[in-house]
Specification:
This protein is an alpha+beta fold. 42% of the residues lie in helices and 15% in strands. The chain is built from nine helices and six strands, in the order ααββαββββαααααα. The protein has a four-stranded mixed sheet with strand order 2-1-6-5, covered by helices on one side. It has a two-stranded antiparallel sheet with strand order 3-4. The longest helix has 30 residues. The radius of gyration is 23 Å and the shape is elongated.
């Protein structure tokens, strides 16, 4: 690790009036792409990359001034506010620009899906890189997928919805309906509580995994998108739990 990595700190530019905003915009290099810069939108909470679009100076100004993402459409040749027709706005939490001053990263609170297809993110397609997995330069014994999320589990469970109940436990649960799924949630909730009372941490982990699994099965059965739950949690950010309960 070099000295710059050891002493890493963010450089912050304060924008508090039109003059400082103008100074910031002059710092950004719009010349390389004929007046445009790439703009990456990232979910402020999940850190998921949502989309890539382009900005000109006017759209970046609007983004800073309004606190909502504005982009420049190359196909329509006009400025547009994200969510102006769909309602799927991007509220700005933070703006970063790169070392060459020619691209920006927006950390946003995304309302609804980011992609026009209805997906949470535009990057919902991926390749299975067999070249990488089979490369002689890589020790495949140590090549493991280390990323995991409840969304991945949700997608896996949802993919079993139309499977043969004789071959898929998830499909069998879904076919039996909310009473059977609810019974499993009750059973696993009790197991978590009893494990906590016993102070058995390994069992708490095991039973909690079961509980989360059955909760997600219930979401899939009820046709509730995983991100609807995440959006509900986001709404409660910065709100006292006591106040939130009183508001129900």
């Amino acid at each position: 690790m070099n000295e710059k990595e050891n002493n890493f700190t963010y450089i912050t530019i304060d924008i508090f009036d039109e003059n400082t905003l103008d100074l910031f915009l002059k710092k950004i290099d719009f010349s390389k792409l004929n007046g445009l810069i790439p703009a990456v939108a990232q979910d402020y909470f999940s850190k998921e990359i949502l989309m890539l679009a382009f900005m000109n100076e006017e759209s970046l100004r609007k983004t800073v001034e309004t606190g909502y993402a504005h982009y420049f459409s190359r196909s329509r040749n006009k400025l547009w506010k994200k969510g102006e027709t769909s309602g799927h706005t991007q509220q700005i939490k933070e703006i970063f620009f790169d070392c060459d001053n020619d691209s920006v990263l927006l950390k946003v609170i995304q309302k609804g899906p980011a992609c026009h297809t209805g997906h949470k993110t535009c990057f919902y397609s991926k390749i299975n890189n067999r070249l990488l997995a089979n490369s002689k330069n890589i020790n495949t014994d140590n090549y493991k997928e280390i990323f995991y999320s409840l969304k991945l589990l949700y997608d896996l469970i949802a993919s079993r919805k139309d499977s043969d109940p004789e071959e898929s436990y998830v499909a069998k649960l879904l076919n039996r309906g909310p009473e059977k799924i609810g019974k499993k949630i009750l059973e696993e909730s009790l197991e978590v509580i009893l494990s906590a009372i016993d102070g058995d941490k390994d069992k708490i982990i095991y039973e909690s995994a079961d509980l989360m699994f059955f909760y997600i099965v219930m979401l899939v059965y009820s046709e509730i998108d995983f991100f609807n739950v995440i959006d509900e949690l986001k709404k409660r950010e910065g709100i006292s739990g006591l106040d939130e309960k009183k508001s129900r």
